[in-house]
């Protein structure tokens, strides 16, 4: 449980018995979730790091603070940092066309009409750019804004069968775009997986090795990777779901899947990582401190500022937000109007979440990082438990005392 970052505050930065932790503990006591790890840091020091509940259904074993989680889309900010490191080395510019580095996308077409069986295609109005991959606006199919016929085409591609990022991109490039590049925010992992492949092209290294050598090892993120060593798999939190009666059950998605094995056949930059709250804090603290942690610089301060700046104004036509009060930077959400977001926070706070109920936020104005890690997948139950992140963040702010 090494957390070399931090000693506890000599004076508390949260009120005694944080209401945020009490709220999470109460949800677990009600049986809404199996367990959770919460971690709150302020001004570079941990002020609360707690585990609640159990690690596995039917087991008395308590969840420990060093539990390992599948972080899914919280992989995306890490992939974005990996790519931005290569931008700083002059390997690309944000508005370069993707086809300059991945020729497979040079002949891509947009679905203009017809059906999946008889598609009508046209040339895109503008080239797909690297920036659009960061911002989930490259026109790729897969997200919630994808028209039904385009969704059928991306599903037929069976991208999950790809065995590496190179084959993933080759398969994806054969699928028509769902929209013109730069015209629509359409969040989906396909964008970040293409970005991960570009990291391989620019660096000349396999994606997993690049992350390990350039990010995880320098930041001492010792429990983060695409697999978990057999000797550490006892620390993995069980993935749960909810049945029709509102009871916790083992996730059907992970039925028969050995915990700790790779989540995908390829190294997914969109959602393939395992991590711990302690490890992810080191990554988040690096961003909060302008790209440097304990004398190790990962990115320049200016690049981190760019990453945490709303990019949706670069779309055509420009957009302000992708949901009320929130814009999107180079790999995560950016608060532009906390009042419209209806959640306590500061203008400019940055964060994201994973599909299995892991969450983080970074508030540069308050010097604050707050994280909530659970392992629960919505699998279609009519009585899914309430999401905890919004109220958790609000209670964290209410507990600040200095």
From TrEMBL:
<keyword id="KW-0378">Hydrolase</keyword>
<dbReference type="InterPro" id="IPR001466">
    <property type="entry name" value="Beta-lactam-related"/>
</dbReference>
<dbReference type="InterPro" id="IPR050789">
    <property type="entry name" value="Diverse_Enzym_Activities"/>
</dbReference>
<dbReference type="InterPro" id="IPR012338">
    <property type="entry name" value="Beta-lactam/transpept-like"/>
</dbReference>
<dbReference type="GO" id="GO:0016787">
    <property type="term" value="F:hydrolase activity"/>
</dbReference>
<feature type="domain" description="Beta-lactamase-related">
    <location>
        <begin position="21"/>
        <end position="379"/>
    </location>
</feature>
<protein>
    <submittedName>
        <fullName>Serine hydrolase</fullName>
    </submittedName>
</protein>
<dbReference type="Pfam" id="PF00144">
    <property type="entry name" value="Beta-lactamase"/>
</dbReference>
